[in-house]
Every structure is written in structure tokens, then in C-alpha cells.
Amino acid sequence: MRESLIQVAYLVASALFIIAIKLLNSPRTARLGNGLGALGMVLGAVATLFHQAIGRYEWIVLGVAAGGALGTWMALRVQMTAMPQMVALLNGFGGGASALVGLGEALQKLPHGDPPPAWLLTVGLSILIGTATLSGSLIAAGKLHEVLTGRPIVLPGHHYQTAFWLIVNVGLMLWAIIAPTPLPLWLLTASSLLLGVWMVLPVGGADMPVIVAFLNSLSGLAAAATGFVLQNYLLIIAGTLVGASGFILTTIMSKAMNRSLWSVLFEAVGGQVSAASAEGRTVRQTSAEDLALMLSYAQSVVIVPGYGMAVSQAQHAVKKLLDALQKKGVDVRFAIHPVAGRMPGHMNVLLAEADVPYDLMWEMERINPDFPQVDVALVIGANDVVNPAAKTDRSSPLYGMPILEVEKARTVVVLKRSMNPGFAGVENELFYKPNTYMLFGDAKKSLEAITQALTES
Amino acid sequence: MRESLIQVAYLVASALFIIAIKLLNSPRTARLGNGLGALGMVLGAVATLFHQAIGRYEWIVLGVAAGGALGTWMALRVQMTAMPQMVALLNGFGGGASALVGLGEALQKLPHGDPPPAWLLTVGLSILIGTATLSGSLIAAGKLHEVLTGRPIVLPGHHYQTAFWLIVNVGLMLWAIIAPTPLPLWLLTASSLLLGVWMVLPVGGADMPVIVAFLNSLSGLAAAATGFVLQNYLLIIAGTLVGASGFILTTIMSKAMNRSLWSVLFEAVGGQVSAASAEGRTVRQTSAEDLALMLSYAQSVVIVPGYGMAVSQAQHAVKKLLDALQKKGVDVRFAIHPVAGRMPGHMNVLLAEADVPYDLMWEMERINPDFPQVDVALVIGANDVVNPAAKTDRSSPLYGMPILEVEKARTVVVLKRSMNPGFAGVENELFYKPNTYMLFGDAKKSLEAITQALTES
Amino acid sequence: MTEVLFALFIFMLAAFLGFELISKVPPTLHTPLMSGSNAISGITLIGSLIAAGSEENPLAIILATLAVALAMINVVGGFLVTDRMLKMFRRK
Amino acid sequence: MTEVLFALFIFMLAAFLGFELISKVPPTLHTPLMSGSNAISGITLIGSLIAAGSEENPLAIILATLAVALAMINVVGGFLVTDRMLKMFRRK
Ligand SMILES: NC(=O)c1ccc[n+]([C@@H]2O[C@H](COP(=O)([O-])OP(=O)(O)OC[C@H]3O[C@@H](n4cnc5c(N)ncnc54)[C@H](OP(=O)(O)O)[C@@H]3O)[C@@H](O)[C@H]2O)c1
Ligand SMILES: NC(=O)c1ccc[n+]([C@@H]2O[C@H](COP(=O)([O-])OP(=O)(O)OC[C@H]3O[C@@H](n4cnc5c(N)ncnc54)[C@H](OP(=O)(O)O)[C@@H]3O)[C@@H](O)[C@H]2O)c1
After folding, report:
1. Of all residues in chain C, what percent carry a pLDDT higher than 70?
2. What average pLDDT does range B193-198 have in this prediction?
3. Per-chain mean pLDDT for chain A
4. What is the pTM of this model?
């Protein structure tokens, strides 16, 4: 009876997770969705506490208190700009927990009789995926937080080493299935840790978001694998949903960056900060005051934010400029490229943080046809996502990536600090076009100057 | 091992069914989808033949041969216009089979020990839903095929009787759960038959399609319930998918007709052929020759087919008219109302049969804004779906139903046999509008006359 | 009891999936959807096959054979008629 | 073996359902989707709870408690941070 009630709770929790993800498809219902997801989690956890196998609670309380406190602290103090590394870290912890549960269950069951091979396979997968997710995520978070260098770290014969560790892992799994003892499982844990590290090290900073989404998918799959180990359908359902979600995000991002997951993993790109070749060509510069004047006479302004807005934390300054312009009757919209910034939806979150209404944020396909009617396209710390080479230059690594066609606007103004390239490391012809003006300096400072000039005028 | 392989086959079959339904979302892939569904069915059935419980094959061969032959014969000779009753019949047979399997399994298991109540509940549901689907579908098919009258058949105290049979059924299920013997199950079978009949008898002809979709949903749920009885996940998955499908279609249709499922089931409407009140008001008539002239000078013609096109089997004549008009350079489109005809998508199937390309068939929301630019709206045997009372007359039973706004076209021509109303039984003001012309007569004959006049001119 | 519960997980997932899938089917295809999904509901065939091949008692055999026949009509008729319809859909 | 097979049915359904659901999420919400779905993957918490409450051997207890802590960080951190983000989304 008790077991049945727990299963009913798990059934309801599964439904809550599904509804949660369903509600995430609109900004209006997303918060409710997240809340229902949390409710499902609480329901699942509380029901589990009544499981008859549970004999004592002291260690549970310890783990819950420690993890809960740490999680709360992290969630409340993380900066919105540090979201990518936060998500990476959380993915890693989830994966690690799944691996530990899989390993622990196996260590406990092995002494009592011969488990079936199919079950041992799921144990192996749970350990392999979970542990590799943990170590890979730590590396990814380190790179994103710039504790590690953002450049690809490629050791001699790197891909052979990665392949080697993969083969070792498969071998260890086979060993564990044929001769079920703890030893191969421990070894598998260790070598999976290495595999995760090896996998992520050679990935450059610009590709990191794809990796984070990929690790997101893996953390889900690790939970699903653990669900197979425990024969727990709630784990399988929740884990698989997350696995699908991460996989789709990975695909979307790879497409938007015009790369394949394979090339992200194995063909190191990005981070090679090849100092810009000024080559004696000149760009037109403008000043905050001139720009303010230009903006105040514009009818239609489109703001294109990029990674630089995140770096200089300029989102609130952007919002102030928006208010000032709207007060002057200027029509202002935001053009959001799917891979602007460092993770999907990065710009949306930052702008939302600064209270920019989401119906002002236009997706690329929707706004691109409008650029010829736009008076000023204001590019704030974006670079690769507005690089026309993606459309014209077959030799560019960006070639084929869909971009925001700002060059079609009557005037383009770019706010950045220097002529340095963006994360793909390529020159941007946009800056040299006759209708383009550059305003050098930190984006936040420039924006504040513009807004001040606007309100004073 | 054998059992495992069968389960693997079931797993693949489930996936095939899912993919089949996924592919049904576009006309380009739908046929492949249907084929994959059939493949899934063959896979599931063949795998089942290896089940170790099966001791002899003679009865299987007999049933398969008889059913297969009859099914093939029905499928090959049914007219496209008779599709609604065909689907109704098939639903009924599916439901009946599910009920028989559930009943048989229970009769076999009851002598051996006490089955758990939850299982007995699923047996009861399988019998109840399956049998009611069978008898209800037979009545629906009879009404649609005009073997029975299309008018609502309402016995004295009808709804009380329906409620009575429902209560009897619930009581019998409880009895079967408390005292698991064959008797209550047999009684349940009999009284569920009655329930199905009672449920469908009072539904009028116009509401029949909603009932067919509802029975479609029930036949799926019956299969799912039988899946619970047999602990067969393939049955549960396939049955539930069909249950969801039927339910959504029911909802869409009820909405398009501006009714609720409740009112369809319990508030008899339709079929009351209230002879039209000519009231001395006159309509403008036109002739096939005049109409041919009008059409040949038109730039944009929209054809609005309705139930009358199905009745007179005029789809091929429509296609000939289409060809003739296109040859003269007239732009011709079709406007398809979601509940035109007698089942959802009815018009699309008929027109497709006559080789009208599906990209000429426009949905209501898409074509309504275009009517003011249309020269001639040619209404062929449609009535309720173009009745402006739905928008203006609060007292009309159609009020609130979205309609095709043909009255906005420059000229409207209506092809029907008389001033009789459509299935909702209400007058249509459209016929009296100054820009409306009537061409009385059987749709097929009228169309042939028009086409002839067109090609001769 | 827990068997029924496990089956409920399947039911719940299939129900959500069904809603997502079907709500994407355009009205043009609603009739084929109805007859095609109806054919799929004939899956109850596999239950009837086992019964017809394993029952002992004559009445049970007759019921089971009838079930096989009914399910086969549903399956064969459903898929064939759907194919007949879909064959007719073509682009310009 | 058949247990794993039954679980595969669940896996397959959840995978199809996941694809259908996620492909409807607009790009605006991709970051919250990532952190929110990530929180859901912390469901492995319930496995770790049982382990932490039932293991005997000290090493196993330490591993299990660590698993509880890691999973809790994932769950609490994930849902809270997602809520923080979504709270900020508003219409004009
Ligand atoms: N969002 C995703 O999901 C995702 C995923 C994978 C890859 N990526 C990659 O990331 C890139 C995103 O493109 P993006 O256009 O947003 O960024 P970007 O191409 O990386 O360019 C960012 C620009 O911001 C400027 N910048 C940096 N700090 C600044 C500051 N404090 N003030 C003003 N400007 C500053 C930099 O120039 P200065 O140094 O001269 O200031 C730089 O050129 C693409 O290559 C994309 O493929 C994104
Ligand atoms: N499609 C669905 O799924 C569905 C579902 C539920 C209910 N319904 C109901 O069915 C109705 C459908 O509307 P509808 O406009 O298609 O049809 P309708 O309103 O039923 O009208 C059909 C018209 O066709 C004419 N007609 C009949 N036989 C004819 C022939 N041989 N030649 C020429 N004309 C002929 C009839 O007039 P004469 O007798 O004067 O010829 C009649 O007025 C709606 O009330 C709808 O709510 C449909």
C-alpha cells in the first residue's frame, strides 16, 4: 500500500514536470511552470522519505541542509551575466549525483547474487555519463568564469587520447558486465572523470554554450540511466525530458553557429584573439553627443545587443537609453540573434533583468526584413552576429551563419572598446562601411554618456 | 528470451505508431505515416504469433481470414461520400473486439484465484467502453447511412433512461469487483450495449460527426483499457494515442459548431426539416448560362463546398469546372469550413478524390479576409457554414459559430435544390441579399451545365 | 496493484504525447486522421490473437475468434481506406 | 531483462514527448529553459535520499550523503535561479 502511494506521488510528479515544461513555452506562463516543476520535485522527494528502505534520517538531513543552503546561496548571489557558468556547474552537480547513486546502488547489490547484464549495462551508463558530465561541466564552468583560459587547450595527440579514454570506458563497462565486482566500477568512475575533462578542454570559449547545452542533455540522460538502475519511472521520465531539451538546444545552437556538434567537440575554434589588423584602413568615429542628436531625430531605432553588453553589464544603461528615446517618441526595438552572447536566450534574460518588456525583443527572422526602414541600428557589443562576411565570404569561418542584417539600416553605430574581433576571431567589414560609425569605449560608459546628452538636449 | 523479443517488437511497433501520427501532420508525409502505422500493426501481430501461450492456429487463421477479407472488401468498395459511416462502423468493430478480449481474459482468469480489484476495474472499463462503442457506432452508422432516420429519436424520459443505464453499469462493475464471477460481467456487457444505443439515438444527423469522433476516442480508450487488463504496453500506448486524437477532434468540432459535447449528447438538435418559410420574399435566380458568363469575366472566384456537394457526388463536376475556369485564366480557390459536410476534413477528402490540389484548399481563417476582393463566391450545397445569422442573430442556434464570410464577395451564387434549410434547420438571410443569386437544382447537374456553357462560349 | 500503477505511467505519457501530436494535424487531414487513428486502435487484435490461440472452452474460443475477425476488419479496413484517401492528396 | 524493457517504453515515450514540448519553446526563454530543465534533472535526488537513508557501510553512506548534497544544490539552485530570471520577464 505504502509503495503504491509513493508510486502515485511519482506519477503526479511526472505529470507536473511535463506540465512545467509545457508552460515554459510562453513568457506569460513560464514562471508558473517553473513553480509547478519545483512542486513536482518536492512531492517526489517527500514521498520518497516514506520509502520503507529508509531507516535513518540523519545523513539525509545533513545532505539536504548542506546542499539546500549552498544551492540557495549560489542562486541568490549569482550575477545574471554569470548564468552560463552557473548552469554549467549545476549540470555537473546533477550528473555527479546521478553517478554516485548508480555506483552506490551497484556496490550495495553486487554482493547479493548475480545481477542481469542489462541492469549492469545501465549501471555502467549511469556512472559513465554522470561522471563525465561532472568533470566536463567543471572545466566548462572554469573556462566560462575565466578561471581557466577561454582558448582551446589542445594537448599533443589530444583526440587520440580522448578516443583512448572512450575505449577504456567501454572496456571497463564490458568488464563490469562480465565479472560484476566493484573494481571495474571504481575504475570506470575514474576514467570517466578523465574523459569529461579531455572532451571539454579543447573546446574554445565561443563554443562553450553549445557544450553547456550538451552537458545539460547529458545530465538528463545520466538521471534517466540512474532511473533504469533503480527501476524508477519518475527518474526516467524527468531525465529523458531534460535529455531531449538539452539535445534540441544543442542542435539549435549548432545550426545558428553554422557548426555541427562534432566540429564543436573536435575542431577547436575560437578564443584565438588575433589582434585586429588595422591595415591602415580607417573607420568613421562618432561621439556620444553626435550620436544622441542622431538618435533623437530618428523615427525607428533598432538596438542589437551582443556579448559586449553582458561583459560591461550595460543592460540597465540600455534600459535608461530606451526610456529616454521613448520619451522623445522614437520607436525602439531590440533585435536578438539566437546566439548573441554566450548562451541561448542570454540577451533576453539580461534585458528582462533591466525591465525591458519582452514584446520589444524581436527574433532575427522577424526583424531582418525591416532593417531597410530603420534609421539607426545601434550595435552594443555585438560583433560576429552582425558580420556580413557570414553572407558573402566563403572563406570565413562564419560563412553560412544567418546574421542580423544591420548593414541595410540607414545608419549603423557600433559601440565597442577597440577594433578587436569577436569570439570567432574574424575581421568585420561592417565597421568599414560608409554608413557605419564607431563609438569606442566600454559599452556601459558610452551608453550613459549618450543618455545624458539626450536628456540634456 | 522469447518474451523479451516480443516486447522489443512491441516497443518498435509503439514507436512506429507515434511516428505514423507525427507524419499525419502534413499531406506530403501522411501516406508514408499511414504505411508505417500499418507496418507497426503487422510487426505487433506477427510478434504476437510467437507468444508461448498460443497453442493452435486454426481459429486465428479463421478469424484473420474472415476479418481481413471483409475489411478489404469494405475499404475498396466504400464511396468517399460514405466515409463517415465507414469510420463509424470500424470504430464499433474495434471497440467490440476490445470488449470481447477483456471479457474473455476475465472469464479465463476468474476461476484461478482472486484477481486484485484494480485489475477487475480495468476489466469492467474495457467491457463497458468497448461494448458501448460497438452499439453506439452501429446506431451512428445506421443514421449516417440513412437506414435509420437522421432525426433525433427521443423516447419518453430518455435522459433519465440513459442515466439509469449508466448507474446500472457502474453498479454491475462494483458487483464484479466485490464478487468476481462471470455473471456481473455478462450483465455488464448486455447493459453497456443498451447504454451505447441510448446515448446515440437522440443525437441528430447534424451532430453525428461529433459523435463519430467521440466514438473514435472511445474505441481508443477501450483498447487502452484492454491493454491494462493484459498488462500490454503496446495496447495502452496505441489506444491512448487514439483516445487523445478522437478527443481533440471532438473538441475542435464542437467548437466549430459552437456547441459543447454535453449539448451534442443531451440536447437534441438538427434534422428538424422545418420547411422553409418563403413568406412571399423573393430571391434572385440565375441560369447556368448567365453564371458561366459571369464566371468567365471574373478574376477571382472562390468555391465554397458544403454537404450538398457530397450528397450529389458533385466533386468531379467541380473539378471539371475548376479546369475550365483555370483555362480561361480565372484564379480559383476553395474555401473550406472546418465543419462543412458531415465530418471534419470531409470536403478535403472529396475534392482530393477528384484530383483538386490541396494547396488550392484554403482554411477559413486564411481566406476570410480575402472575400472583399473576390468577384464570385460560388457556394455549392453549403448552407449553415455561410449563414450570416451566426454573426448577427443572437437568437439563432448558429449564433457564435465562425462562418465563411461569402456575403462580402462582390457576387454570391448559391447552388442548391430548394429553399430548404441546412442541417441546423434555420433560415439563411444570405439568400435574400441583393448580391446573391440562386441556381436551383442538383449540384452536379448545375455544375455540368455551367461547365458546358463555359466551354461552348 | 503496482502493475496497474506502472501501466498508468505509460497511459499518462501517451496521453500527453497524443495531445501534442494531434494538435499539429491540419484540418485538411482530419478525415484521414480519424480513419487512420481508428485503424491503430485495432491494435486490440494482438490481444484477441493470444486469446484465440490459447482458450480451451468452446464459448471462449468463439468469442475470441469473433474478436480476431472484428479487430481485423478494423485494422485492414482502416489502413486501406486511409491509404485510398491519402493517395488522392496531391499538390498543384 | 523484461524490467529494463518495460522501462524502455517509458524512455521512448518521454523522449518523443520531450521533443514535441521543447521544440515549442521560443528562443526568448532558452536560458530559463536550460536552467529550469537542469533543475528537473536533479530528480536523481530521490535516488540519493533512499541511499543515504538505507546504506550500512560508511563509505557508501558518505557517497550517498554527498549525492544528496550535490542533487540538492542542483535542484534548489536551479529552480531558484530560474524563478529569479522569469520574474524579470514582463510585457510592455
Ligand atoms: N549565445 C550563444 O548561445 C552562443 C553559443 C555558441 C557560440 N556563441 C558565439 O558567441 C558569439 C556571439 O556573438 P556576439 O556578436 O554576441 O559577440 P562577439 O562576436 O563575441 O563580440 C562581442 C564584442 O563585444 C565587444 N565587447 C566586449 N566587452 C565589451 C565592453 N565592456 N564594452 C563594449 N564592447 C565590448 C568586443 O569588442 P571589443 O573587445 O573591441 O570591445 C567584441 O567584439 C558568436 O560568435 C557566437 O557563435 C554564442
Ligand atoms: N463537418 C463536420 O464535421 C460537421 C460536424 C458536425 C456538424 N456538422 C454540421 O453540418 C452542417 C454543415 O454545413 P454545410 O453548409 O456543409 O451543409 P448544410 O448546412 O447541411 O447544408 C447543405 C445544403 O446542401 C443542399 N443540398 C443537399 N443536397 C443537395 C444536392 N444534391 N444538390 C445541391 N444541393 C444540395 C441542401 O439544400 P437543398 O435541400 O435545398 O438542396 C442544404 O441546404 C453544419 O450545420 C455543421 O454544424 C458538420
Report:
1. 97
2. 92
3. 89
4. 0.87
| Tens of pLDDT, residues B335-382 | 999 888 877 788 998 998 888 998 899 999 899 999 999 999 999 999
Domain boundaries, chain B: 1-55, 85-266, 288-456
CA B379 from chain center: how many Å? 22
- pLDDT of B269 reads 55
The whole-number average pLDDT for the span A186-198 is 93
Give the helix ranges, DSSP H, for A24-82: 27-49, 58-77
Residue in A355, A384, A393, A442 annotated catalytic: A384
Model pLDDT, residue A243 = 95
pLDDT per position as a tens digit, A200-235: 888 876 677 788 899 999 999 999 999 999 999 999
Q: Measured between CB atoms, which of B108, B119, B248 is closest to C19?
A: B248
Please give the pLDDT value at position B272: 43
C-alpha to C-alpha distance for B295 and D57, rounded to whole angstroms: 89
Q: For residue C13, what is the nearest residue in chain D, using CA coordinates? A: D13
Question: How confident is the model at residue B404, as a pLDDT?
Answer: 93
- Residue linked to cell 546561496: A73
Inspect the interface and report whether the beta carbons of A21 and D37 lie closer than 8 Å. Answer: yes
The answer to whether B209 and B127 have CB atoms below 8 angstroms apart is no
Higher pLDDT, A114 or A409: A409
For residue A272, what pLDDT is reported? 43
3-state DSSP helix/strand/coil % of chain A, to nearest 5: 65, 5, 30
Q: Are A141 and A158 in contact (CB under 8 A)?
A: no
Ligand 2 centre to CA of D75 (Å) is 57
Tell me the one-letter amino acid at A376.
V
Active site residue A384: yes
Distance A310 CA to ligand 1 centre (A): 9
Pairing of strands A331-336, A361-363: parallel
Contact indicator for A416, A436 with CB cutoff of 8 Å: no
Q: How close is the Cα of B344 to the center of ligand 2, in Å?
A: 13
Shortest CA distance to B71 belongs to which of C70, C46, C82? Answer: C70
Residue D31, Ramachandran bin (φ over 0: left; ψ between -120 and 50: alpha; else beta): alpha
**pLDDT of res. A268:** 61
Among protein residues, the one with the nearest Cα to ligand 2's atom 1 is: B339
Interface predicted TM-score of the whole assembly (ipTM), two decimals: 0.86
- CATH code for the part of the protein at A288-456: 3.40.50.1220
Query: CA–CA separation, B15 vs D11, rounded Å?
Result: 11
Cβ of B443 below 6 Å from ligand 2: yes
CB distance from C34 to chain A under 8 Å? no
Asked if A341 and A384 touch (Cβ cutoff 8 Å), the reply is no
Output the CA angle A270-A275-A279, nearest 5 degrees. 130
The residue among D11, D17, D23 with the most chain C CBs within 10 A of its CB, best to mutate, is D17
Which segment of A104-108, A157-161, A362-366, C88-92 scores lowest on mean pLDDT? C88-92
What is d(CA D34, CA A110) in angstroms, rounded to the nearest whole number? 36
- To the nearest whole Å, the CA of D80 is away from the closest chain C CA by 27
pLDDT level of residue B401 (50, 70, 90 thresholds): confident
CA distance A421 to chain D (A): 25
Burial of A386 per CB tally in 10 Å (0-12, 13-18, 19+): buried
